Amino acid sequence: MRKGLVIDREAQMIGVYLFENKKIYRGIPRKKVLKKTKIYAGDYVLGEVVDENTFAIEDIEERKNFLVRPPVANVDKVLVVMTLKMPEFDNFLLDNLLAVYEYLNADPVIVFNKIDILDESEKKELKRWEELYKSAGYDVLKVSARENTGIERLKEYLKGAICILAGPSGVGKSSILSRLVGIQLETREVSEKTERGRHTTTGVKLFPFGDNSFIGDTPGFSSVDALYFMDKKEVRLYFREFLRYKCRFPDCTHTKEPGCQVKEAVKKGEISCERYRNYLKIIKEDISIAKDLCQ
Ligand SMILES: Nc1nc2c(ncn2[C@@H]2O[C@H](COP(=O)(O)OP(=O)(O)OP(=O)(O)O)[C@@H](O)[C@H]2O)c(=O)[nH]1
Ligand SMILES: [Zn+2]
User: Fold this and answer.
1) What ipTM was predicted for this assembly?
2) pTM
3) Which ligand 1 atom is nearest residue 81's CA?
């Protein structure tokens, strides 16, 4: 059987991208497949080419994840787009987004856009944030969609990945998408005209780009509260750098327990106070706990 990727799913239309010849077919699912599950953009499918335009879908591979918004399966990377300014950088929002995508098992990476508008001192400030998130265990890329800087590196980085963009309004998600895909996206305007908009829950498209990479035309969350997805007690599992430490109690919430190695690490400067404070804010703990640890 041949392997394809569902890149377009709208009502009865299923667009299947076949890896071996990079052609797009209309996917027709066999009855037994439909019985098993729904088919989404991002699904890897197995089947046979029936004719020039048609691919019979015989089976769907098990999904590694599924993002409800947008409805895309098997997302390898979520590009969480932020800017230092315009709009102003909001690290609390970033930490919520990172925790949620971590929870959804969709590997968030941080993309700082609009580096073209930064003066020297702002560049230094961005550098500080970059180092902070890198030491927390996140990949950080810096780009300017306007000037097309860092885009080739980003493409290289996303080789073979299914990705989606997320992040607040105005940070340049559509601009980055256009740069990656290399076309002005007419689909966007069309869908806006018909008022189905971009936040629609059907009709997600994955655009092929670069070297077998794919990116969703609909962005993920622009803002999110981690507690909407997970219990207070779980948040600690989605702060990557916390997992490096073993506290006295395995279910330590890193707040008031004795023998907490995470707090020890904050004190030593191995975990940033900014991240730790946001953790406390997310779980609605008293942030004065951080005061004694952070000078
Ligand atoms: N200076 C500068 N401006 C940019 C850059 N990228 C995007 N912009 C501008 O920022 C504004 C917002 O860009 P969009 O691409 O629409 O941002 P978005 O994140 O898709 O916004 P929403 O659709 O509201 O979610 C536009 O005026 C862009 O021209 C950049 O790299 N540098
Ligand atoms: Zn602890």
Assistant:
1) 0.99
2) 0.94
3) 19
